[in-house]
Amino acid sequence: MKYLVSLGVLAAAIAAPQAVSQTPAGTAEGRHGSVTLSAGFPEDPRTFAVQAGGAMRASRLGGSGCVGFITEDPSFVLTYEDAGDVFDLMISAASEADTALAVRTPGGDVLCDDDGGASGFNPGVTVESPSSGRYEIWVATYSAGIGYPEAALHISELAYSDANPFARTVNAEAPAGASLSLRAGFRDDPASIEVAQGGDVRFGPLGSSCTGFGAEAPSARLTYRAGRYQLYISTESERDGTIAVLAPDGSWHCDDDGAGNLDPGVVFSEPQSGDYLIWAGTFSEAGAQTATLHVSEIGYAGVDNSVDVSGQPHHGAHRLRAGFSPNPFAMGVEAGGPVRADQALADHTVIEGYCYGYITREPTMRLTWTGNGEPLFISAGSDADTLLLVNGPDGGWWCNDDGAGDLNPGVTVDDGPDGVYDIYAATFSPEETATATVYISQTGFGPEAVSTRVDPSLDPRFGAFTLDPASGSVPYELELEAGGPLRAYQAGFRSTDYCVGYVSREPSLVINWAPDSAAPFAVYFDAERDTTLAVQLPDGTWRCNDDGSIGLNAGLSLDGEPGFYRIYAGTYGSEPAPARLHITTEELPR
Predict the structure, then answer these.
(1) Which of 343, 369, 578, 583 has the fewest CB atoms within 10 Å of its CB?
(2) pLDDT computed for residue 27 by the predictor
(3) pTM of the predicted model as reported, rounded to 2 decimal places
C-alpha cells in the first residue's frame, strides 16, 4: 500500500551532495545523489535536496521543449526497479527560483518541462508506463547567471509536489549587523553607515518586486520616530545592489535600481514609527560585500529629487489662445537638469507615456492656454536626444521621448483643457544640457507644425463604394497601396484597440454599407508585407488591428450597422506596400 507522508518524514530522505563527475552520458553520477526505488515504493513522494542550474543549455540534451541551464552531469540519478503497468513515474521539483526539468529515460528519450508541475513556476515530468532502469534527472534554472538555488526534487508514483523543505529565507529574528536610531527632522541628513551587503539567501520569496541575494540576518535595524516627512532608505556600493525592507506594519518593500546608478532605494510616503529591518542585497549571488546605507527625509542619499511646478519657469511664462499666429509658437530653451524625473514623479499621475530623463526642479517654461477644447501639440527640436514632460491643468503628466520623430519628443493633448501647462525639457544624463526649441501648435509637431492626425473628411485615396450584401456586391476585393507617412499611435484613432503602423492622412477608401438592418461583415488584407488596419465606424468610433487575419495580415470583424466606414490600410513598417483588401460576410480567415 502507498502512503503520503509529512515534510518531517521527507527531510529524512535528503541525499548528500556529491562531486561533479565527468563520466560519459549514461554513467555519470548524480551531483546531488542517487537512489534505487522499486515500483510501489513506500513513503511516496521521496524528496531529495538538490541545487538547480548550471552553465550548459538544457537544449543540448536534445529533448523537445528543453529550456533553462544545467550542469553537464545530472543533478540526481534514479534507478527504478520492478517496473510494471500499475504506476506512472512522476518527477517534479520545487524551488523559490523559476526552474525546469529534464529527464533521460533508460531508453535514451529526453523528457522536459518548464511550468507543468504542482504550482507556479515549478516543473513536472510524467513517465507513462515507465521501464526499469536508470533515470538521469537535471533540475535547471530557467534563467542564466542566477547561481545554484536550493530545490526539492520529488519522485512519486502518485502526484507532483510543490513542497520545498530546503528553502532558505531571511530571518527577521536574527540580530541585525548594525543599528540606527532617528527621529523626524534629524540633522546631518542623510544619516549614513557602513553595512554588510549580499549573501546566499534569495529575496524572491519576499514579494514580486524582490530580487537579489542577501544574508539571513538583517544588515541593519532602523528605529524611527515618524513625523511629517517622507522616509528614503537606500544603499550605495560598487556592485549592482538590491534592498529589502520589513516595515513596522509587517509589509515588505523591495527595490533594485530605484536610487539610480544600479543603487536600490525604497521610499515611505507616510512612514510609521517603529523598527525598519533592512537587508542590503546584491543582484547576483556574489558573496559578502559592504555598502553604505543612507537614510534621508530629503531624497535618496540626501539628494532632493522633487519638482516644483509652481516655481519660476526658467524661460518665462507665455499666454496663447486658439487660433494664435504665427503657428507654431517657438521658444529657445536649455534642456536638462539635476532632477531625475522618474523619481520625482513616482507618486504623480501620469496620463500618457513614460516619464524619465533629467530636468530642472522648476519648469523649463509655462504656458497659459485658452483653447476651447481644441487639440494642443507640444514638441521640441534639438541636435541632442531630448524628452518632454508636461504637467497639465488637472495635475496629470504627459511624457514623451521620440514622438515628433528624429529623436525629438512630442506630446499631444487631445481636447486640451484651458489652464496652465508647465513644460519640462529633459536630457538623458544629469551631466548633460542641450540647446533646444520648444514648439507649440494646434496642428502638429516641429517648426512646420506638420499634422500627425488623419482627416477622415478628405477624399479617399482609392474611391468610395456602396455595398449591400443583398445585392450581390459582397464579397468585394480591391487592389490598393497600404501605408503612409503618419504613425498610427499619433494619428488620432481614439480606440481601445492597440493602433500601430503607418497610414495616410486621408482614408484609403470609404464604404457605404447599405443593408436594411445590421449585417456583420469582415475586412481583411492579403499582402506580402505586414499590414495594419484602422476603421472609423458610422458612429464615429474607431477599431484597429495588426495581425487579426492569416499570417501578418490585419483583419477586423464588424457588427455591420448601416452607414459609412472609413478604412485606413496601414503597414507595420514605414515603407508603403501593395495589398489586396477583402470585404466579406463570411468569418474572418485566420
Answers:
(1) 578
(2) 63
(3) 0.59
